[in-house]
Design goal:
single chain; 9 strands; binds S-adenosylmethionine; Rossmann fold; alpha/beta; 233 residues
Length: 233
């Protein structure tokens, strides 16, 4: 991982500039994520928000529904841009926001202990694990073990499953509801009959029997990320 977090493969300055340019283009995806977050019955007043960047895809309404949020990201710029995007809403809702610049994987045990009553949201961060320092085998095993470490907690994650080319003239499909886990191969067949997909090695993050939503995120012209979103019900 880039130690400064400024130019990491999944965040930092490049990510903020891209998000600023493309946020409107992402409007459909942001609204689907908003509706999904609204449907999450976590019953917690605090939120441990992991890898949120500046919250480009996180709705004010969801963030403002908490009385306390502790956010953790490696990106040093994230708190400042997050403040620009959401500060006003959080001041209005009286939400106390604290930040920690840290690697969530290294700090997870401490965080779970320090915030035992908080709901936990992995905010589109787990799909980039294989891009960072550890190799694919290590990343997949680590992600697959996460649900055991989180047993007994109210948690949710939305993360990349597949990414790749999408013809510019082809309309974005509607979200897909799945009752349980689906392999990367099965998901690739479902979303498109052809094309090469990058597998983000996130098949086993959510427990196999959790229902989930598969959302297309048109990240840029001609490219799509298929995002899986799920929470404990
Ligand atoms: C794709 S962005 C998240 C986008 C976010 N959901 C939004 O709405 O803007 C991924 C974020 O995860 C952060 N990140 C990546 N690996 C991390 C780690 N190991 N610990 C903490 N943050 C991490 C990056 O710095 C980046 O800000």
């Amino acid at each position: 991982m880039n130690s400064a977090g400024w130019l990491s493969p999944s965040g930092g300055a490049v990510w903020h500039l891209r998000a600023l340019r493309r946020r409107r283009y992402w409007a459909g995806f942001i609204s689907h994520i908003g509706a999904w977050l609204e449907s999450w019955q976590h019953r917690c007043s605090g939120l441990l928000l992991l890898g949120p960047s500046a919250g480009w895809c996180l709705p004010d309404r969801f963030l403002g529904s908490f009385s306390r949020i502790h956010a953790v990201d490696i990106d040093p710029v994230a708190p400042w841009v997050f403040g620009l995007l959401h500060g006003r809403t959080l001041r209005r809702s009286g939400t106390l926001l604290t930040w920690q610049r840290a690697d969530l994987f290294a700090e997870l045990e401490h965080l779970l202990q320090a915030y035992p009553e908080h709901a936990i949201l992995f905010a589109n961060v787990l799909g980039q694990r294989a891009l960072h320092q550890c190799g694919p085998g290590v990343a997949e095993a680590e992600l697959g073990a996460l649900s055991l470490r989180l047993a007994g907690r109210r948690w949710a994650s939305f993360h990349d499953r597949l990414s790749g080319h999408w013809p510019r003239d082809r309309p974005m499909p509607l979200p897909i509801r799945l009752a349980a886990a689906e392999s990367a191969q099965a998901l690739a067949r479902r979303v498109s009959g052809s094309g090469e997909w990058c597998d983000h090695l996130t098949t086993h993050i959510l427990p196999a029997d959790w229902p989930r939503l598969i959302l297309p995120w048109p990240i840029g012209p001609g490219r799509v990320h298929w995002i899986e979103a799920g929470y404990i019900v």
